[in-house]
Amino acid sequence: MVPKVLTIAGSAAQGSAGIQADLKTFQERDVYGMAAITAMVANNTITKQGIFTHSLEAVEAQYYTAAEKVGFDAVKTGMLFTKEIISLVAGLLEKGPTKKIVVDPVMIGKMGSQLLRDDAIELMKEKLIPLAWVITPNLHEAERLLECGPIDTTAAMREAAKQLYQLGPEYVLVKGGSLKESAVDVLYDGSTFTEFYQERINTIHTSGAGCSYSAAITAELAKNKPMEEAVDTAKAFVTAAIQYPLDFGRGIGSTYHAAYRKYGNEVTD
């Protein structure tokens, strides 16, 4: 039977990130994807207002529907936005059917939207991150979680991973996509560091890259792949998506989720 995965995250109306990116990734990685939508992000110049949160009842109902009607082998969290939603989701996952929980601590979107309220960060650290099999912060998110200065070298990433590990996850993956020298990510399991390298790709069209990366890891974990293999596959998947992006001629474009399937053998090593 095909592995089943659930994402609990926000909907991105432009289609490149959030729930939309997760479901596209799940399809490409050959797992059955479901979604519990926490909020809708729809920034535009006409209505001005851009973020609309769902009620706790709506989030809870979506979760239980996925669990009851299908079940899931792994789950990912993305944009949760409020401390109330974080508290609800942590309570659900604590009693859930799987320990394969990927926490992507989404805070700021590529378009500049604040996707996690300031008063929710501490609750995420206290309630949600300790439940995670792996957390996947980028450098800016790691800095916010640790309340530290710039993380701008691989050595600093290793130190950040060690500190984040103290929050309770089984693994920490610090993503170095914004490092100047190379796109290196650091995985830490409490004793060993594993580094994943790809050559930097010169493009602004990276919307959805972080969501897609963590979604691909979730998909591979649902297939019972070891963490290092899951991250390695996900890194190759998202690198292809960045190397062959979609440019809509309207600012930051999207990662291309079909790129690994279509051009996988041509991805820069």
Automatic annotation (TrEMBL):
EC number(s) per entry: 2.7.1.49, 2.7.4.7
Domain Pyridoxamine kinase/Phosphomethylpyrimidine kinase: 14-254
Pathway assigned to this chain's UniProt record: Cofactor biosynthesis; thiamine diphosphate biosynthesis; 4-amino-2-methyl-5-diphosphomethylpyrimidine from 5-amino-1-(5-phospho-D-ribosyl)imidazole: step 2/3; Cofactor biosynthesis; thiamine diphosphate biosynthesis; 4-amino-2-methyl-5-diphosphomethylpyrimidine from 5-amino-1-(5-phospho-D-ribosyl)imidazole: step 3/3
The entry's keywords: ATP-binding, Kinase, Nucleotide-binding, Thiamine biosynthesis, Transferase
Domain of life: Bacteria
A UniProt-annotated Pfam family: Phos_pyr_kin
A biological process term (GO) from this entry: thiamine biosynthetic process
Protein family according to the UniProt entry: Belongs to the ThiD family.
Protein name: Hydroxymethylpyrimidine/phosphomethylpyrimidine kinase
